[in-house]
Amino acid sequence: MSEQRDLVLDIKNLTKHFPMGGMRDTRKVHAVEDVTFALPRTEIVTLVGESGSGKSTTARLISRLIEPTSGEVIYNGKDVLKTQPGGASLEYRGDIQMVFQDPFGSLNPAHTIGYHIERPLLIHKKVSGRKALKDRVHELLDTVGLGPADETAAKFPYELSGGQRQRVGFARALSVEPKVILADEPVSMLDVSIRVGVLNLMKRLAEDSGLSFLYITHDIASARYISDHTNVMYAGRMVEGAPSDTLVHEPAHPYTRLLLSAVPNPHAGLRTQETQARGEIPSLIDPPPGCPFAARCPHVMDVCRQIMPGAVTIAPHHWVRCHLYGDGGESPLPNAANSVG
Amino acid sequence: MVISMSTDVKRGITAVPDNFIPLIEIDNLQVEYLAGRGSVRAVDGVSFSIGKGEVVGLAGESGSGKSTIAQAIMRILQPPAIITGGQVLIGGRDVLQMTDRELRKFRWDEVSMVFQSAMNSLNPVATIGDQIIDAVMAHRKINEHQAREQAKEMLQIVGIESDRIDSYPHQLSGGMRQRAVIAIALALQPPLMIMDEPTTALDVVVQREILAKITELREKFGFSILFITHDMSLLVEISNRIAIMYGGEIVEMAPSRELFENPLHPYTQGLMASFPALTGPRKQLEGIPGSPPDLISPPSGCRFHPRCPHRFGPCDSVHPPLIEVRPNHFVACHLHTTSEGSAQ
Ligand SMILES: Nc1ncnc2c1ncn2[C@@H]1O[C@H](COP(=O)(O)OP(=O)(O)OP(=O)(O)O)[C@@H](O)[C@H]1O
Ligand SMILES: Nc1ncnc2c1ncn2[C@@H]1O[C@H](COP(=O)(O)OP(=O)(O)OP(=O)(O)O)[C@@H](O)[C@H]1O
Ligand code: SF4
Ligand code: SF4
Ligand SMILES: [Mg+2]
Ligand SMILES: [Mg+2]
Q1: Above 80 in pLDDT, residue A161?
Q2: Residue A337 pLDDT more than 60?
Q3: Over 90: is that where the pLDDT of B1 sits?
């Protein structure tokens, strides 16, 4: 992990605790806990994990829509939380764009699609003149397959289907020529054919236009298709990180294994498979010490309930946070490759 | 604790049940949106039925009319949408002809819906607990304490710790909000449940747990489900039959396993070829070249013809009807209707 690479984002020990909100309730939701990972320039890094494990919160912290409890967000070598303590600069807000998870909640019903894409262009002064503005809007809509662009631009969000709105969100993020896109489930409502189109677009933008992506998804096959590296989150913690292909073929953490065993694989045809039922729901409200997966883990040991395992590197660029793996340890579990797909 | 999905999976794919009794029949439904340049024919002559206790999956292109069908069945479409034709028959009555009073009763007792916008459809100023309690108390004669206990139980079922009962929607993750909405629908258990992309924000483990739970409840209470999703592999596992939509029409419909193993329509085949594989070599995928059809002036003949690799003689002029080419397997494609095309 210490090897010198050109990192556009370097996230260190990022932590966010939310108050529960009740009047007398002093408990805290530990949404993101000690999250560390890097986004190398022009790469696509995936974040997968359980629903509610802190993926969107991590993206919102990086984009500085919310402020962390602690941690560092290092952009091009500088910790922006220190250099811009009063909130993100206009430049940072332009460079780091977010595609929001909910396409129904993130478009303003009172404005046309054209307006949604024009606004960031104007705020960040990316074009000058009516004509250039219009051309750019149309170009962006065509890029995401929302032609005929002049018609789409004149529409209001309620006139679009779920998948069409999702692509508007993507076009809006692209509009200001950002350096990094934090894409929170950007293709979840697209049919596989259009989905592949957007994924190929992301790959092309990373390779040709120098963009870097944090790709949050539940579609692990698509993560392997476009991304270089995949990180896995569980209950606010990053529990494993590996090159995407390695993660799928040699998952180390018991949660990652569970996740992969549940992936329906259309190419494998139908499988009859055993899925582990949920034991306890992991609590993020003032969680107990130890490994958050302990309540569900088939390999749980005494130490797991007391001490949080540290991150251990088990192969180049492959690390895991689990007591089964000692320093430089080898996987004590049977090779998982054949248990998947 | 290990639960086996295998029995559910096997049962889910046994084609059309022998004792098929239709719960709802959609017949030649037509819906248009009046737009500037003309009308968008979002749903154009769609017919299918859902049996009692059956799960019918609806998949297909983004923008092909799936959510519009769901909203037409509930009759909750707003202007500029107009239903220009067809029937939605349930228990011998046509939903499209119901009076306001009948309609209220239908929506109240016979159907519940998880909207595609579920993440955004909870009331932002009420706690999720209150929203579940309100829904349950409105439908059942129980007191608030009992309703609260039931709300906690429903949250547990969808994998949300019951301590979150007093959380507001903005304090939950996208997938947790989706699950809260599923919890409300499940608590009501009407004969027909319409779920429009209910699991887009759920990881596969939670997704499987919830689907297993839905399957269990469905077997116990016998409700039917119209399940809309882009996730074909999910559909194959939970639905009896699958309909594929393209450009406002159903282009193929078959028992799930049959559709999956033997897709006949070139659009369906294109979809199947667009899945990235989880394992094995990483291949470049191209999807289906070309763009979605313009629904204001759709392509003549077969709507898929401008993009179809198998296009031939009649395709750009003659509209292919949806016909049964094998038992329960329907397809709308000239390759399977005329003697000129040889079946692929
Ligand atoms: N404003 C808030 N106040 C309190 N808790 C919050 C708030 N925002 C998020 N949380 C909690 O933080 C945790 C992480 O939420 P987050 O949205 O980051 O999850 P996620 O990984 O994106 O999940 P999903 O896949 O379901 O979208 C959840 O338990 C959520 O309830
Ligand atoms: N209010 C409206 N006015 C005009 N056109 C509309 C309106 N609502 C939907 N449409 C159009 O009708 C078509 C069908 O929309 P619908 O929401 O039913 O698609 P869908 O199949 O559910 O797509 P997705 O999978 O992306 O959610 C789309 O092309 C959409 O642009
Ligand atoms: S630390 Fe222990 S409980 Fe946690 S995943 Fe590893 S073995 Fe399981
Ligand atoms: S009818 Fe013709 S154009 Fe349409 S799908 Fe069949 S072969 Fe292709
Ligand atoms: Mg999220
Ligand atoms: Mg829809």
Answers
A1: yes
A2: no
A3: no
- Torsion region of B86: left, alpha or beta (phi above 0 gives left; psi -120 to 50 gives alpha): left
Residue of B nearest to A283 (CA): B161
Residues of B in contact with A270 (CB under 8 A): 9, 13, 236-237, 257, 260
- Torsion, Cα B269 B272 B274 B279, to 10 degrees, reads -140
> Over the Cα atoms of chain A, what is R_g?
21
The pTM (predicted TM-score) of the whole model is 0.93
Using one digit for the tens of pLDDT, what is the confidence trace for B287-302?
Answer: 999 988 999 999 999 9
How high is the ipTM of this complex? Answer: 0.91
Q: Which residue has the higher pLDDT, B340 or B145?
A: B145
- Which of ligand 4's atoms lies nearest the C-alpha of B341? 7
Q: Please compute the mean of the pLDDT values over residues B278-284 and round it to a whole number.
A: 89
Q: Is A269 in contact with B261 (Cβ distance < 8 A)? A: yes
Q: Is the pLDDT of residue A323 over 60?
A: yes
Could you tell me which residues come within 8 angstroms of residue B160 by beta carbon, excluding any fewer than 6 positions away? A52, A281, B172, B176, B179, B180, B183
**Tokens 């996208």 map to which residue?**
B174
**Beta carbon of B257 within 6 Å of any ligand 4 atom:** no
Residue pair B320/B312 in contact (Cβ under 8 Å)? The answer is: no
The answer, yes or no, to whether any atom of ligand 2 lies below 6 A from the CB of B68, is yes
The alpha carbon of A2 is separated from its chain's Cα centroid by a whole number of angstroms, namely 22
Average pLDDT over residues A28-43: 97
CB contact (8 A) between residue B205 and residue A218:
no
Confidence of residue A69 (pLDDT cuts 50, 70, 90): very high
Contact residues for A101 (Cβ-Cβ < 8 A; gap 6+) = A56, A184, A185, A188, A216, B119, B174, B201
B44 has which bridge partners?
B30
Residue A72 φ then ψ, to 5°: -130, 140
B interface mutation test: which of A32, A159, A191 has the most B CBs within 10 A? Answer: A191
Minimal C-alpha gap between A125 and chain B (Å): 31
Query: Which residues from B are below 8 Å from A260, CB to CB?
Result: 278
pLDDT band at residue A277, thresholds of 50, 70 and 90? low
B 170-229 residues inside an 8 A Cβ radius of A: 171-176, 179, 197, 200-209, 212
How many Cβ atoms are within 10 Å of A131's Cβ, its own excluded? 9
pLDDT of residue A333: 53
Torsion of CA B304, B308, B311, B317, to 10 degrees: 20
Cβ A284 under 6 angstroms from ligand 1? yes
Rounded to whole angstroms, how far apart are CA atoms A90 and A125?
Answer: 11
Counting Cα atoms < 13 Å in the Cβ hemisphere of B300 gives 5
Say yes or no to pLDDT of A22 above 80: no
Give the mutation candidate from A23, A192, A199, A224 for the B interface (greatest B CB count, under 10 A): A192
| Residue B2 clears pLDDT 50, i.e. is over it | no
